[in-house]
What does this fold into?
Amino acid sequence: MTVVVTGATGHLGALVVRSLLDRGVAASDIVATGRRQDVLFLLSELGVRTAVADFDRPETLGPAFAGADTVLLISASEVGKRLAQHRAAIAAAVAAGVTDIVYTSIANADTGGLALAAEHVATEGLLAASGLRVTLLRNGWYIENHTDQIAGQAEYGVIGAAADGRFSSATRADYAEAAAAVLADPELRGRTYELGGDTSYTLAEYAAWVGEATGRDVQYTDLGVDGLTAALESAGVPTPFAQILADSDAGAARGALEVTGHELAELIGRPTTSPQSAIAAAL
It folds into this structure.
């Protein structure tokens, strides 16, 4: 078995490579790919094979996928460019004789109505037509999307537009372990997983946990979509990304980011990381 991990130079991909090794997959059976040669060099020190693979340079994909039977297609990060990038990766996988693709999609992709989900839904359609065996890992919200801002949250409070909607968040490490579990065991493939943390929370609850962890009075302020967009823009977030984030909060208010099952915990064989633990780790 040879497994190609795309995006291995990013946060999630690097964690997947390490999780595969932790699960006993031979380093020689793992090909870590990405655009950053400096990070690929660091990954090579783990004993895995590495290759440059750039979705914007399709000529790099065929050599990177050659000889592999399984590709983990980690969704690209550039919203608006992802569908073309994913199309190139899928075509290269088919041409290389790959039999399995595991794709990191988004929770409730086809029902949640998030703007962020549109390219995921389109990619899922491309995969369905590819003739390959497809596994969809519909990852819920990364709790790091919240905890990465914890210093400012402790000082100024938590802002959003999610009302009392719930986030079934988990850590990148949790999602990486799930991907590694599926990659390491072909019996787990060929299906769609809706993945989320065991504990779903509102942003008001999240703010209270930040307050408990920091000893401060941390409140949640709901700004609405327009208000949140403006606040993010004033903080230097580019307008298109600010709009995506505000839309995602609005989706959470509708339930789009709540996952009621426990497939993530089942895949990784343990409870998912609690929000309180993730907050403590971020401080």
Notes: The two ends are 40 Å apart (CA to CA).
